Amino acid sequence: MTTLPVKPFLLFRRPTARTGLIAWLTTVDHKKIGVMYGLFALSFFLLGGVEALVIRTQLIVPNNHLISAHFYSELFTMHGTTMIFLAVMPLNSAFFNLLVPLQIGARDVAFPRLNAFSLWIFVAGAVILNVGWFIKAGAPAAGWFGYAPLTSKTYTPDISADLWTVGLQVLGLSSIVGSLNFITTIINLRAPGMTMMRLPVFCWMALITSFLLILALPSIAIALIEVIFDRHFGTSFFEVSNGGQPILWQHLFWIFGHPEVYILILPAMGYVSEILPTFSGKPLFGYPIVVFSGALIGFIGFGVWSHHMFTTGMGTVATSAFALATMAIAVPTGVKIFNWIGTLWGGQLRLRTPMMFALGFLWLFMMGGFSGIMHSAAPADSQQHNSYFVVAHFHYVLIGGATFGLLAAMHYWFPKFFGRLVDEFWGKVSFWTIFVGFNATFFPMHFLGLNGMPRRTWTYDSNMGWNGANFVSTMGAYLLGVGVLIYVVTLLWSYFKGRAAGPDPWDARTLEWSIPSPPPVYNFAAIPMVHARDAWWYEKHHPEETAREQTAHVREEAAHGGIHLPDQSWYPLASAGSLLVAGLFFAVSNYPAAIGAVVVMVAAIYLWSLEGPGGYHLHPEGAAGSGLAGAPEPGSGHENSSSPS
Amino acid sequence: MRLLALRSRLKWCFLGSLAITGPLWLAGCWLNGPQSTFDVKGPVARSQLNVFMVTVYVTTVIFVVVGAVLAYATWKFYCRSSADQPAEPRPQGHGNPLVEISLVSASVFCLILIALPTLKNIWYTYDVPEDQRANAYEITATGYQWWFKFEYPQEPITGVGPLVTGNELIIPAGRPVRINLRTVDVIHSFWVPKLAGKVDMIPNRANHLWLEADEPGYFYGQCAEFCGDSHAIMRFRVIALPAQEFAAWIVGQKLPARVVTPAGADAPQKPEAAQVRLANYPLADASSGDALSASPAFDAEPLTGWREKQIPSPAAEDPALIAEGRHLFQQKTCIACHTIRGHEGVGVTGPELTHVGSRTTIAAGSLENTPRRMRDWITNPNRFKPGNKMYNGGYTDPATGQRLINLTDGEITAIVAYLQSLK
Asked: In which residue ranges of chain B is pLDDT below 50?
């Protein structure tokens, strides 16, 4: 590998390490970034789970004094914030990274260095949010929804609210950057023949989710900026004594917050729409309807935010409008369930662990959907709102839905990225433990809510009729915890000792299964030609045509210098690191130091742009047909290409 | 073989009946609390429950149908062994527009069934119906961190303003009550599940709700919007009285605080005995299993218990101790935050205590109003309501942590005796 030609002052040389710490810190490979997203998110998933178990332990008996009221507030605030922003969203980002390029037949995302930047500022935001646990001010404690004026200087004088606002702002930036990258990738980097209506449903859901993110996040970004200005610069957006309107926060928050629900669930619908067809041996039933209803859910999702505010006294007309819109969104959601059942119908079902989780998703998501319909009836909601009934509802949607989808996906795609199958027996054990534990935890909460127990309550009295359900719920939570532990340990064990998986262990249908497991750095030795919706299924059943086309592609590409891959870079990490420093200094109101760190960040981004995308060429051996695993020849050429990065 | 089949059928019958009766059984045990939204006692809560039951019926039918199809599909098309797998893949069909359209239409139809009662009751629950508006009784409820103030604008007291109480709202039964919802600090939410669903108290926003109790009764309520660390301890009661009793109560409440006349010099003095008796009460803890806010005897007949609370019992009172308590209430600056109309108290940041002895609960509905609980509460309010202003800002300076007010056991005993006498 030769060094770059003479360039302006760049501070860092382009790293070339292919293994070791530096390779991971500077990587622009979507698969490595995806794995890191997954590992960070999984760690936060476990942390959020521990927070939940402490909450449940406090509630196991009435009038419990195990933990303090303030610690309880910190726990439920950080449990919600962690599970949404630091566990489920980044786990979905991990799968966007891992799968989107593979499913559309691309070699990387459109902007590889921006992708690394998005990962590292996610880590920065996560650190800012959690640093409160280690300082005197404590962790954020105003709820994940942070209703004004509880977040004002009057009611939260310490910096915990500043860490929360700045942390969320940084995480939002990470999501916007990532979303723009995936939209560009899906629209521009599809393999020849991969029309939009042949796009795997998961990629469609990734596309819709990305659009939701870039449209929804500005709303909370504005709301957070208003809180930041109120707290730091004396404005009065939510300052009641100066005529501020706390209700404004609720509107801005939920205009983000409701699409956020679909941001969490649409990717899970994507996983399930890939897994059910594979294990049924049939294509997805009603592909266009599933795709269209996904888009419709995303669209209507922007018009239902006030159903989180039925009790704020909006008046009859607004309440009715949002109630009807909320009922309307049940239609495209129900349609998806019908189509998934249609996919099973007439198939040959292999009930492997990913399929079990996917079927579990169908049952639990359906139940969460039904309690959602109950909430859309505004008069009924005025009893259920902010009660444990709501806690039951959204855990059915977010664990039974989003998390079961993710558990299915992790089990399903593990062999692809680590080359080994997850142990089937312990996978099934983990499924049943999680399924039973989950229902034991959250089904009784429906009754708690209907029996009048408000959420976010640190303790309760023993004459309220809530003792039995709370006890069962806590026991269920422990079982759920054991189930998740079994699941994670099984994954870890399988990483080291699992049975070797071939390229296509599940007899699957999409392109990622046409390449070796784990995929080589360049993904596809020959860019595939897509002829049908389930592209790999078609290739499997038309081997001659496929071989002919791929040979032609390889020849063509070799004539242009071989496979081109982007260079690694230090700048995404450097700029994200300075953003972390800036955020922390800003949270403690040290503005000069914060401005200094922002200057460093701008300098890093400037140098990043001077650095140019770089890149090198690869010539894998025997690049013809599928299933080839020729060892890459790193650095057989180096050039300064002008494609964007 | 036949026996086996029968046994298997019996097993399914058993499991089936368990699946149906299980939730009903749970409903019996788990939906009978004092804040149950199922045990409704007024027209507003009843209309909300009716809408809820419509959603339950509709979704149950959908669940049974869709769930049955899903279960059947899983069972029917499940490959139990590799021999089940046909050599050729199944037909690779992509969908069926007719099925899709009929299912979408069925879903829309189900939603219309829910939408109609929803719309009707959004209007019904929003405000007192037109024909009863003239008869409606008006009350203003204000949320504080962490207690409720109740004002009666229709009951002015000459030279004072409207009648004010705290944490226990007395309303006339069988008459619509329109409640204005206000807050002085953060967002709270007013919720009495048996009478009506909640409406939020939002700063700079004039919300209201209405409710009506069918019969006289004693109801539990609780704040339903997270409002800080002691949100869980922001509870209250609603007591609905027959019209005449309500009118009599209003008359009694308008009177200034009761004065216990000191007995003659020859009356027996017994402060030591009282002090010993109170000091021996153990602090309630979780392991005792007792409810802090009501004894089982009280919960069995709460309205009777409330009525008993209204009657002073001079025989059990110790006038000297009460006089000492009244003096300490002033000396220890309790008066700065609490109003005791007719006595020294003038403060308005804490709950008004003019007739606190006649309430069934203290500490925002979280402790039963007994001498023992009141002593526990005054000794260490932070234990029961962490972050409350009586301790943080009253007893101690939150900025420095310095102790400002010290109370000995004897002093607390006197204050408790005084407050208990305020019937």
From this structure: 265, 267-288
* Spatial separation of the C-alpha atoms in residues A261 and A258, rounded to whole Å: 5
Does A197 lie at the interface with B, CB-CB under 8 angstroms? no
The string of pLDDT tens digits covering residues A211-267 is: 999 999 999 999 999 999 999 999 999 999 888 999 999 999 999 999 999 999 999
B56 contacts A338? CB cut-off 8 A: no
Classified as helix, coil or strand, B211 is strand
Q: What is the CA radius of gyration of chain A?
A: 25
Query: DSSP string covering A51-119, please?
Result: HHHHHHHHTSSTT--SS-HHHHHHHHHHHHHIIIIIIIHHHHHHHHHHHHHHHHT-SS-S-HHHHHHHH
CA distances from B420 to A50, A531, B250, B345, B367 (A): 45, 86, 20, 15, 14
**Shortest distance, CA A173 to any CA of chain B (angstroms):** 28
Across the interface, whether the CB atoms of A454 and B67 are under 8 A apart is answered: no
Q: Which residues pair with A349 in a beta bridge?
A: B78
Q: Which of A29, A226, A260, A381 is catalytic?
A: A260
d(CA A397, CA A337): 13
SS3 (DSSP) at B240: strand
Q: Which helix (H) or strand (E) holds B62?
A: helix B43-76
User: Strand, helix or coil at A30?
Assistant: helix
Q: Which residues form the domain of B25?
A: 1-30
Residues B113 and B49 in one domain: yes
- On whether the CB atoms of residues A196 and A186 are closer than 8 A, the answer is no
Give the count of alpha carbons within 13 A of B121, CB side only: 26
Dihedral (CA of A31, A37, A43, A48) sign: negative
Q: Which residue from B56, B94, B220 is facing A287, i.e. has the nearest CB?
A: B94
Q: ∠ CA A328-A334-A338 to the nearest 5 degrees?
A: 150
Q: What's the CATH number where B188 sits?
A: 2.60.40.420
CA angle A105, A110, A111 (to 5 degrees): 145
The token duo for A457 is 């309550």
Q: Which residues contact A555 (CB under 8 A, 6 or more apart)?
A: none
Range of the domain at A101: 30-520
- Give the β-pairing of B367-368 and B361-362: antiparallel
Length of chain A: 645
A46-67 pLDDT, tens digit per residue, is: 999 999 999 999 999 999 989 9
Q: What is the pTM of this model?
A: 0.92
User: Facing residues of B165 across strands?
Assistant: B150
Measured in degrees and rounded to the nearest 5, phi and psi for residue B238 equal -120, 125
d(CA B421, CA B259): 8
Q: How many domains does chain A fold into?
A: 1
3 state SS for B115-149? HHHHHHHHHHHHCCCHHHHHHCEEEEEEEECCEEE
Say whether residue A600 is in contact with chain B using an 8 A CB cutoff: no
Q: Residue B264: enclosing H or E segment and its boundaries?
A: none
- Beta-strand (E) ranges in B223-297? 235-241
- E strand or H helix that includes residue A169: helix A160-188
Could you confirm whether A336 is annotated as catalytic? yes
- The residue from A336, A420, A446, A564 that is catalytic is A336
Question: Are B298 and B242 found together in one domain?
Answer: no
Contact B111 A328 (CB under 8 A): yes
Residue B270 lies in a domain: no
Are residues B57 and B73 both part of a single domain?
A: yes
Q: Are residues B296 and B217 part of one domain?
A: no
Query: Do A350 and B19 touch, CB atoms closer than 8 A?
Result: no
Strands (E), A319-445: none
pLDDT single digits (tens) A266-293: 999 999 999 999 999 999 999 999 999 9
Q: Catalytic annotation on A262? A: yes
